[in-house]
């Protein structure tokens, strides 16, 4: 999108009086910057005054701002008037934006019911109200992020871009788009692939060296959305954990120097309670796991090591208990900082956020983490024979598109999100338009089909002739996946990367794992390799002249796991990948070795989960 002006307005009396209170505005600026790196972002802090809000909105609409996001003043209190001011300015409401914000926010908190956000358009400016809290701002931005570019383009009447997005969403793009690929001389097509056959290691090296040049930045994610991201900054404990001496047991907090014997039960402390008056010698306090030790206490005696001596007649209160064995100082106490001391490293730069790390960050008060950005990935299927999977009845000579669904899920399994761009027909103009729409949306395009030797396999010429793409490779010595193609090109001022994979579902599956996942990991500066292990074949295996990646499940019955090949390995039979936890790396056959016997140990790439079924 052309660089425009985006305005962030914090509407809040308190922030107006003291701008240092404004955390939502700066957060929003960071989020907007990551989505619109070329736009000029201006900020404002104004009080909850309807007239002032209206005037500001009008001023920026007059200046043709592309987008105004307000934060604050959307609630029920009588000073909250941002929605009223917005409604007075907009000419058209955009109720679906507000509905989407409400639906998503309600999933997080019922408090979303007390937000009254309004969205709409004034002339060429889109105005959206966000609630005032920083958390809400982050969540709401995630909701509107996917439509902002497109919405602004429509409002600005950027017909070229709008059309390409619409076309790509229809699945079939306009077939009249002009391609420079000449498809008329079928008889003159090459009978042998003009692309050199690369070895796997060469192909991997090329992917690594090309993708290393992808310039990523840093973005802030809320910990709720952080799973799988690579952390871009080391974070340290800002407070000790536990922040108070905490009981490890349900029992009695005591003074250890009192030794064994009878104690007066002074009080009860449950988790979450605090207790001010110090214990006196001879006293104890009933305590629960996770509760803070009362001042003066230095140990906990678990309930199993005590005996009730006396209680109130109604048995509701213990009066005296006997401590059966003399406790030691600090017995069953987690002192301050036992788990995490102040200043301890919590997460180091380069770590991948997993469930436990996210829990650690949540416990340490970090709501947001700076992480390495990832390329946006788009998936495109190609083929005249393809129907949408939702279509019940197949037309003659048609099949349903399984690759988009499979690839999106495969990327997700490996931790990456992607957008599906539909199906393009095997026509140069249609391919050109679909590829253009995808490249406008994404940094990395994964398309399937149309890269083999048929006269309808037009993707390679479309990439080179219409997009001036450099084909880094167009053929790899591997099975499945021989025609795998990797290209890059300049598109609207940015470098784009294209993985054009063969259409057979298993080829697409294996090549996505081996090339695309690798590429995405390189972009995040992670180790690009899958881990490997040694496994034992349960049956003999006929080798192919090409190195073969064979889908298998593992059985953990022996010291070396045994690998059961998942049936017929034909590249169209996606059932051979169902439940696969490894790709066996079979060596190419040569004149001395045509078959591996049962019991042979082979290397396996661990690509899936190791569930014991
Ligand atoms: P291609 O790579 O276009 O020559 O296609 C090779 C084989 O894969 C053909 O049998 C296609 O019908 C099939 N195929 C291509 N794309 C898909 C897809 N998206 N889903 C399922 N099968 C496909
Ligand atoms: Mg095809």
UniProtKB/TrEMBL annotation:
GO terms for cellular component: cytosol; dendrite; postsynaptic specialization membrane. NCBIfam families: molyb_syn (TIGR00177). Residues 7-151, 378-522 form the MoaB/Mog domain. This is Gephyrin. It catalyses: molybdopterin + ATP + H(+) = adenylyl-molybdopterin + diphosphate; adenylyl-molybdopterin + molybdate = Mo-molybdopterin + AMP + H(+). Keywords: Magnesium, Metal-binding, Molybdenum, Molybdenum cofactor biosynthesis, Transferase. It comes from Papilio xuthus. Transmembrane segments: none annotated. Gene3D superfamilies: MoaB/Mog-like domain, MoeA, C-terminal, domain IV, Molybdopterin biosynthesis moea protein, domain 2, Molybdopterin biosynthesis moea protein, domain 3. Its cofactor is Mg(2+). CDD domains: MoeA, MogA_MoaB. The keyword Ubl conjugation does not apply. In the C-terminal section; belongs to the MoeA family. One of its GO terms (biological process) is Mo-molybdopterin cofactor biosynthetic process.
């Amino acid at each position: 999108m052309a660089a425009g002006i985006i305005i962030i307005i914090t509407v809040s009396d308190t922030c107006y009086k003291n701008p240092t209170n404004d955390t939502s505005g700066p957060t929003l600026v960071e989020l907007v910057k990551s989505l619109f790196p070329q736009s000029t972002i201006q900020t404002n802090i104004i009080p909850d005054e309807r007239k002032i809000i209206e005037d500001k909105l009008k001023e920026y609409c007059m200046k043709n701002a592309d987008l105004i996001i307000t934060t604050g003043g959307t609630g029920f209190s009588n000073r909250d008037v941002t929605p009223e001011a917005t409604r007075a300015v907009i000419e058209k409401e955009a109720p679906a934006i507000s509905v989407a914000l409400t639906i998503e926010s309600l999933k997080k908190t019922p408090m979303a019911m007390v937000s009254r956000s309004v969205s709409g358009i004034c002339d060429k400016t889109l105005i959206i109200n966000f609630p005032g809290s920083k958390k809400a701002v982050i969540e709401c931005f995630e909701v509107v992020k996917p439509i902002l570019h497109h919405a602004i383009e429509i409002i600005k009447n950027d017909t070229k871009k709008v059309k390409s997005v619409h076309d790509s969403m229809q699945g079939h793009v306009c077939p009249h788009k002009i391609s420079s690929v000449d498809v008329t001389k079928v008889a003159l097509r090459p009978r042998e692939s003009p692309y050199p056959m690369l070895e796997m290691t060469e192909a991997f090296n090329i992917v690594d060296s090309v993708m290393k040049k992808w310039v990523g930045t840093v973005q802030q994610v809320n910990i709720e959305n952080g799973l799988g991201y690579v952390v871009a900054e080391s974070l340290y404990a800002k407070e000790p954990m536990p922040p108070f001496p905490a009981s490890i047991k349900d029992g009695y907090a005591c003074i250890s120097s009192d030794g064994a014997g009878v104690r007066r039960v002074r009080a009860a402390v449950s988790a979450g309670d605090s207790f001010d008056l110090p214990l006196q010698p001879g006293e104890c306090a009933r305590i629960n796991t996770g509760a803070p030790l009362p001042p003066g206490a230095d140990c906990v005696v678990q309930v199993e090591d005590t005996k009730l001596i006396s209680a109130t007649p109604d048995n509701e209160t213990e009066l005296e208990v006997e401590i059966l064995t003399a406790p030691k100082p600090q017995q069953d106490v987690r002192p301050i900082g036992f788990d995490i001391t102040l200043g301890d490293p919590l997460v180091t730069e380069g770590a991948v956020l997993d469930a436990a790390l996210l829990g650690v960050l949540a416990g340490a008060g970090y709501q947001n983490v700076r992480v390495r950005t990832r390329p946006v990935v788009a998936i495109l299927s190609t083929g005249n024979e393809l129907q949408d999977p939702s279509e019940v009845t197949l037309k003659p000579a048609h099949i349903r598109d399984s690759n988009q669904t499979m690839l999106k899920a495969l990327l997700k399994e490996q931790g990456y999100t992607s957008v599906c761009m539909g199906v393009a027909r095997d026509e140069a103009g249609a391919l050109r338009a679909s590829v253009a729409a995808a490249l406008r949306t994404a940094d990395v395009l994964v398309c399937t089909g149309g890269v083999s030797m048929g006269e309808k396999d037009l993707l390679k010429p479309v990439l080179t002739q219409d997009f001036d793409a450099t084909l880094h490779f167009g053929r790899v010595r591997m099975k499945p996946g021989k025609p795998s193609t990797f290209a890059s090109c300049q598109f609207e001022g940015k470098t784009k990367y294209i993985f054009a994979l063969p259409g057979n579902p298993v080829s697409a599956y294996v090549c996505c794992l081996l090339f695309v996942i690798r590429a995405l990991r390189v972009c995040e500066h992670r180790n690009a390799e899958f881990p490997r292990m040694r496994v034992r074949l349960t049956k003999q295996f006929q080798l192919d002249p090409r190195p073969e990646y064979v889908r298998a499940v593992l059985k953990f019955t022996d010291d070396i796991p045994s690998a059961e090949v998942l049936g017929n390995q034909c590249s169209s039979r996606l059932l051979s990948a169902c439940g696969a936890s490894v790709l066996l790396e079979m060596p190419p056959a040569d004149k001395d070795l045509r078959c591996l016997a049962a019991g042979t140990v082979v290397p396996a790439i661990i690509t899936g989960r190791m569930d014991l079924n």
